[in-house]
Design brief:
Layout lengths: L4 E3 L24 H10 L4 E6 L1 H4 L5 H17 L6 E5 L22 H10 L7 E4 L2 H10 L2 E5 L4 H8 L9 E3 L2 H11 L6
Parallel strand pairs: 1-2, 1-4, 2-3, 4-5, 5-6
Helix pairs in contact: 1-7
Length: 194
């Protein structure tokens, strides 16, 4: 069982655009691919864990979500980086399609996606890290027993200033961006992973 790094997608890996309802709206954040490559070089599994309620709400088709993830993987590959899995929650109470209008266990801050990734990839959630730009990512980290890191990209700066002060759960670390989060993770990991 290995520790892993779970990454939120929008606002952490790529620019927060509201809903990516067209492929042209997908842009990796500066330094994100290199940060993921550094985790790959350290042999730390990386899983993307993302809520995608826009699919449920009918803002974009499933084919676009697949296309966005293909582009993300291709752009990471150009930087010699990769992720070990992509886990999405397509559900929402206001979903247009009934198949997405369910009470699920996977919409963050619930931990169904993390549990599934841990089972499929052989990961130890309690020794892992969750990096995201929303408090829902930090709440999921706490529920998993993982260390939560808030990045100030995407919604992060606003969440940190306006939502965070009222929250009981606090981040283990606050980082300017994914690259800075990875700096902290690599320093925090046991020596056998450095």
């Amino acid at each position: 069982m290995k520790p892993a790094v779970f990454l939120d997608r929008d606002g952490t890996i790529n620019e927060q655009m509201g809903y990516i309802n067209h492929i042209d709206r997908f842009h990796l954040l500066p330094g994100a691919a290199e940060a993921i490559r550094r985790l790959n070089l350290a042999r730390i599994p990386v899983a993307v864990v993302t809520n995608q309620s826009g699919l449920a709400r009918g803002y974009f088709p499933e084919s676009l979500l697949i296309e966005v993830h293909r582009r993300m993987l291709a752009e990471l590959a150009r930087a010699d980086a990769h992720v070990d899995g992509i886990y999405i929650c397509p559900h929402h109470p206001e979903a247009k399609e009934e198949r997405f209008r369910v009470e699920c266990d996977c919409r963050k801050p619930k931990i169904g996606l993390f549990v599934r990734a841990a089972r499929e990839l052989g990961l130890d959630l309690a020794r892992s890290y969750v990096v995201g730009d929303r408090w829902s990512d930090l709440k999921a980290a706490a529920a998993c027993g993982a260390k939560g890191i808030l990045v100030l990209t995407g919604y992060g700066r606003g969440d940190y200033e306006y939502i965070g002060p009222q929250q009981q759960i606090k981040p283990h670390h606050v980082a300017e961006d994914l690259a800075a989060a990875v700096d902290w993770i690599l320093a925090d990991l046991p020596a056998c992973y450095r």
